[in-house]
Write a structure and sequence with these properties.
126 residues, mainly alpha, Helix Hairpins, 4 helices, 83% helix, globular, binds adenosine-5'-triphosphate
Length: 126
């Protein structure tokens, strides 16, 4: 296999992103959730530090889901039939996504709930 330059590496990664968001159900759901979260961040005028934390959470969930999908593909390639080890591999990979997703929901709640409560109480200046 020939050495790739930085542009073809980048092109391959973009193709991987395209495949992920087009074909993976969870990827689509997470994309919608990320768009809603970013929209809420703009609407509620969250701080710079809150943006950094939120974007890291979004990136963590996307990245882990992409790795989870890649691991699932490898498993399906090498072991199309049922295998107890494949079950463990896929379940642990899915758990990695779940951990990041739960932490992200908690972070989202910590950032957004107080702002929404202030807004609903009529004290907010949006
Ligand atoms: N070959 C296999 N051998 C054993 N268990 C399997 C196998 N394939 C899938 N499983 C079980 O089914 C679950 C779902 O696997 P599948 O490959 O269908 O992923 P998926 O539907 O895309 O799931 P996810 O929502 O976690 O991405 C796995 O977590 C695992 O428990």
């Amino acid at each position: 296999m020939k050495q790739q330059n930085i542009f073809s590496t980048f092109k391959n990664a973009i193709e991987g992103c395209g495949y992920f968001f087009k074909n993976e159900r969870n990827g689509k759901i997470q994309l919608v959730a990320a768009i809603i979260t970013v929209g809420a961040g703009i609407w509620l005028k969250i701080s710079g530090m809150e943006w950094i934390i939120l974007l890291l959470c979004i990136a963590a969930v996307f990245s882990l889901e992409m790795l989870n999908s890649a691991i699932e593909r490898i498993c399906d390639l090498v072991q199309p039939g049922f295998h107890p080890l494949v079950k463990i591999i896929k379940d642990v990979a899915a758990a990695a996504v779940l951990v990041a997703a739960i932490a992200s929901v908690a972070v989202g709640a910590i950032i957004f709930v107080p702002k929404l409560i202030t807004l609903l109480n009529g004290h907010g200046h949006i």
